[in-house]
Write a structure and sequence with these properties.
By secondary structure, the chain is mainly α. The protein is built from 15 helices and seven strands.
Length: 419
């Protein structure tokens, strides 16, 4: 049962020497306070009766007002408690003050707008997609935080799994997004922490395998005979370049300019982490850049190459473009074409793997560790925040070595064992 108490805030004396009277609501050992907009002299309060002393200024009027507010708060507490055992002091306060509960969708959309300047366009769009999917499930434009309880989240999980046929990691990603928005609301004291349904829900994603190519598979892709003027050739080149050059992400390579290349190194800022990095290029990567240098010189009639021009001619935007949305859309479009061609290239090279550009990053990491590169160096070149992010590749390598040892479990034929 919630408790209601009225008391003067002695620590809040105004210029007239008066103190405000507050109403305190307590539920589950957590309290919320409401100022009653009434001021008295500290000496006019009777702590035993919890009222203003008779004879004090406006004592009768103030005591009547206090009694009304106490009774109203107790009635609201009783009403809410009969409906749910999960009622909090915040719920009673909102009801007493006549405030409507906060709308999750309105708050989430406000956060998306705030995100726009702070995070990537892709992250912002992902959160908008999470909100859009949840709206379809609800079938309405409003969803109050009060409705977001454990039962609601469980039903939404079921809906994504059974009705939408979403895979476990898609479901996990959606729930993580919802949890983040709720956590933001708690941080801003829009809702109490105890009303967060994820206090009682543990999110678990499904472990995914990181697809990568080994040396002979990359070699087969390099040896494919392709017309050098085709997009497929450019897509093969940029993939191989990444697989030999620190697993650089496609977004960074597509935006790479000739000023980032000093003849031996690529020196640039990683788009995702904003970290500055310098990578020494191996021979294979230098050969690819030499091809594009000649291509650029041929295009400009052997004149000096513009240092601001893109190294890989795959983006359909001006080199002076600054609009974040246009740049993001151009990268997304180019990456879609690259991934489409990579599937064809893998088939042509006899590689039975459904690769995307990101597999070049995994390929470089595993192969670097195979060659004995220290894991902290691999981590630094990949732009990881800590070595812990890179350890997954060491685990992959160990798994591959375990598989290699399985050859000793295979029975040899009599011919193989003969001296």
């Amino acid at each position: 049962m919630a408790s209601v108490k009225v008391f003067p805030r002695i620590d809040k004396v105004n210029k007239s020497g008066e103190v405000p009277i507050y109403l305190r609501l307590t539920k589950h050992r957590k309290s919320k306070y409401i100022a009653l907009d009434v001021y008295i002299l500290p000496g006019d309060w009777n702590t035993r009766t919890g009222k203003v002393k008779p004879g004090s200024k406006n004592a009768s009027h103030i005591n009547s007002y206090i009694a009304t507010k106490e009774a109203e708060a107790e009635a609201i507490a009783l009403e809410l408690e009969t409906k749910s055992k999960h009622i909090t002091a915040s719920d009673i306060k909102f009801k007493l003050m006549g405030k409507a509960p906060a709308d999750f969708f309105a708050f989430g959309e406000k956060k998306c707008k705030a995100m726009y300047e702070e995070v990537s366009i892709g992250t912002t769009r992902r959160y908008k997609g999470i909100l859009k999917k949840l709206k379809l499930f609800c079938g309405r434009e409003r969803l109050y935080f009060d409705e977001l309880n454990v039962a609601f989240i469980r039903e939404y999980q079921r809906y994504m799994s059974e009705d939408l046929q979403n895979n476990p990691n898609t479901i996990h990603s959606n729930l993580k997004g919802i949890r983040k928005i709720i956590n933001e609301a708690v941080a801003e004291e829009l809702i109490p922490a105890e009303k967060n349904p994820f206090n009682k829900i543990k999110l678990k994603g499904q472990k995914t395998s990181r697809l990568f190519l080994v040396d002979n598979e990359i070699e087969r892709m390099i040896n494919l005979h392709l017309d050098e003027n085709t997009l497929m050739n450019h897509h093969r080149n940029i993939y191989v370049f990444s697989a030999f050059t620190g697993g650089i992400r496609v977004s960074d390579l597509l935006l790479m300019r000739w000023r980032h290349f000093d003849g031996k190194h690529l020196c640039f800022q990683i788009k995702k982490t904003k970290d500055d990095i310098s990578i020494k290029l191996p021979d294979t990567s230098l050969e690819i850049l030499l091809f594009y240098k000649k291509l650029a010189q041929k295009k400009h009639g052997n004149f000096k190459i513009d240092p601001e021009s893109f190294i890989f001619p795959l983006l359909h935007i001006s080199v002076t473009e600054t609009d974040r949305v246009k740049i993001y859309n151009a990268i997304s479009s180019a990456n879609a074409y690259i991934n489409k061609d990579l599937r064809k290239l893998a088939k042509l090279a006899g590689i039975d793997k459904k690769i995307s550009f990101h597999s070049a990053r995994h390929s470089w990491a595993v192969r670097a560790l195979q060659r004995g590169m220290r894991i902290e160096y691999v981590s630094k070149i990949m732009g990881h925040a800590s070595v812990r992010q890179t350890e997954v590749y060491a685990k992959i390598l160990n798994e591959e070595l375990d598989k290699a040892m399985d050859v000793f479990n295979k029975k040899q034929s009599s011919n193989d064992t003969a001296l």
